Amino acid sequence: MMRRRLPSLIALRAFEAVGRTGSVRAAGDELAVSHTVVSRHLQNLQKFLGVALVRGEGRGVILTEAGVNFHAQISQAFDIIARATTSARPTSLPTLNIWCIPGIANRLLLSRLPELTGPPRNWEVNLQPTLTHPDLSRAEADAEIVYADVIDSRGPLMAEILLRPRVFPVASPAYLARYPAITSLEDLSQIALIHEESTMQWTRWFELAGLDDLPPLRGQRLWHAHLAIEAARLGQGVALGNEVLVEDDLRSGALVEVISSSVYMETYQLVALRERWDDPEIVALRNWLKQVLSEI
């Protein structure tokens, strides 16, 4: 049989993720590589095929007509591989695949995973920190933990609010010793803040806190909440934290609340398919999350 000449599987995975998420950076987060690596895979794949698959639009990318057709077939191929992999694996240990926003995964859930994986369940749990949303209908994950406003539960998905934490500015004691004059919202808005992927979170927080005349916000962007909080711990500025992400740092004194506030924004939610909502593993996951978050 003649050997098939196929493109790199890694390049195909990168293209599939970009086409599904509409973002090179989001695809990189999902695949745990940098966005430059994803871009290189796309270039190599297009060179191999001799056709343009994507084009830039705004801050993201969209598929060309050829890219749309190719992506549909590649997605089907990956679905087949996923089903074959599931069928080939031994079924002695149930596996629970959870996609989760990085902050709560890294700073809270990781240390408590043995409660979910140990006796009497003895499950295998794959906890994947990512900002990308899985396609639950394609079994990319069993459940997702998100930080969001409202999840549309009218279709195939079910969502349950786990916690709506208070959100507040935090900084290290060393930073506040250098800038002791931060005593009001106006003072806070004038300094270099630590942002996530944009200034949107801080802008909304100031609005909810009651500051009407907001100046242009400054400061570094670190993309993820847990990175922004780590930068605050290192004395690099003021970040937005919440009761879930900074509880231990507040208790130890590594971080302090900069000014008193009472602002509530998004909620932590568990999302799963409606048809699987009462499956034993989803019920167990839901109860475990409620227990962990009730201790905050």
Helical fraction: 40-55%
CATH architecture of the largest domain: 3-Layer(aba) Sandwich
Q: Give the end-to-end Cα distance, rounded to a whole number of Å.
A: 61 Å
* Average pLDDT: 88
The biggest beta sheet is recorded as: 5 strands, mixed
Q: Helix-strand pattern, N to C? A: HHHEEHEHHEEEEHHHHEHEEEH
Radius of gyration: 22 Å
Number of helices: 12
Give me the side-by-side strand order of the main sheet.
Answer: 4-3-5-11-6
Look at the structure and give the CATH class of the largest domain: Alpha Beta
The CATH topology of the largest domain comes to D-Maltodextrin-Binding Protein, domain 2
Short recap of the structure:
This protein has twelve helices and eleven strands. It is of the alpha+beta class. The longest helix is centred in the N-terminal third of the chain and has 24 residues, at 65-88.
Structure description:
The model has no long low-confidence stretch (mean pLDDT 88). With 296 residues, this protein is of the alpha+beta class. A hairpin with a 2-residue loop joins strand 1 and strand 2 (60-63). Helix 1 (9-21) crosses helix 3 (35-49) and helix 1 (9-21) crosses helix 4. It folds into 3 domains: 9-88, Winged helix-like DNA-binding domain superfamily/Winged helix DNA-binding domain (Arc Repressor Mutant, subunit A); 95-158 and 273-294, D-Maltodextrin-Binding Protein, domain 2 (3-Layer(aba) Sandwich); 166-264, 3-Layer(aba) Sandwich (D-Maltodextrin-Binding Protein, domain 2), CATH 3.40.190.10. The radius of gyration is 22 Å and the shape is globular. Helix content is 44%, strand content 18%. A 5-stranded mixed beta sheet has the order 4-3-5-11-6, with helices on one face. Strands 7, 8, 9 and 10 form a 4-stranded antiparallel beta sheet that branches. The chain has a two-stranded antiparallel sheet with strand order 1-2. It is built from 12 helices and 11 strands. It has helices at residues 9-21, 24-31, 35-49, 65-88, 102-112, 114-117, 173-178, 185-190, 200-209, 225-233, 243-252, 280-294, and strands at 54-57, 60-63, 95-100, 124-129, 143-148, 157-163, 166-171, 239-242, 256-257, 263-264, 267-273. The longest helix is centred in the N-terminal third of the chain and has 24 residues, at 65-88.
